[in-house]
Amino acid sequence: MTAPSAGRFITLEGIEGAGKSTVAHHVAKRLTARGIRACMTREPGGTPLAERVRAIVLEGGGELLTPVTETLLMFAARSIHLDNLIRPALARGEWVVCDRFTDATRAYQAAGRGVSRAWIEELAQAVHPQLRPDCTLLLDLPVATGLARSKKRAGNAPDDRFEAESAQFFERVRAAYLDLARREPQRIQVIDAAQPLAQVELQIETALAACLDLK
Ligand code: T5A
Known about the structure:
The protein has one domain: 3-Layer(aba) Sandwich (Rossmann fold), CATH 3.40.50.300.
């Protein structure tokens, strides 16, 4: 198969412990095996400067970070990431596999924290006016399963400000993601992430083929 001339933008979404990082590696490997130049990245972060913003927003440093500040920091990191990594890679014809993007802000800051949805859409419009993921893989699983996986990996102490949130918070986030998927069924493919990894990977193959016309 020949590599396509234009890059594609694939994002992975889901609650904590859904398996996004694990699946991102799998997707990048499968694309590379097809002769497609693929790069893997994540949000918040993805470039040295954006990773510094990530540290601020995830750690907080003991200072108050309101939901509005948190939202602005997510978009600041995203703007740096887009200018320095995502857009240049897409322009070179690479496929970008990104662990979280603006759907995470819709789910975590709007549904989770109660930030205005309309304002988030205005920020999205300002930061990436013409860019939407070509395909989003939403790894869906019960909150308890996701949190148990995160805890098993990281131990009992929460790794960051989000992992310290309540199960109710993550239920709102999960419901918001599923609602986004209902509204944009072509772009957002829901994957049953509670299944064993081999089954999840099979679903990913089908979803990518459906979304991106991969044979
Ligand atoms: N955030 C981010 C916002 O609030 N707004 C935004 O706009 C953005 C961009 C980022 C935080 O920032 C928030 C959301 C997040 O809270 P993060 O570290 O990038 O934090 O995201 P997390 O979701 O916390 O990352 P995790 O590493 O916890 O989750 P993953 O990547 O979904 O899961 P993964 O792949 O690391 O897997 C977790 C464990 O489960 C196992 C893995 O081996 C691993 O041990 N696993 C499975 N086990 C059994 N069956 C399977 N199918 C499995 N798949 C993976």
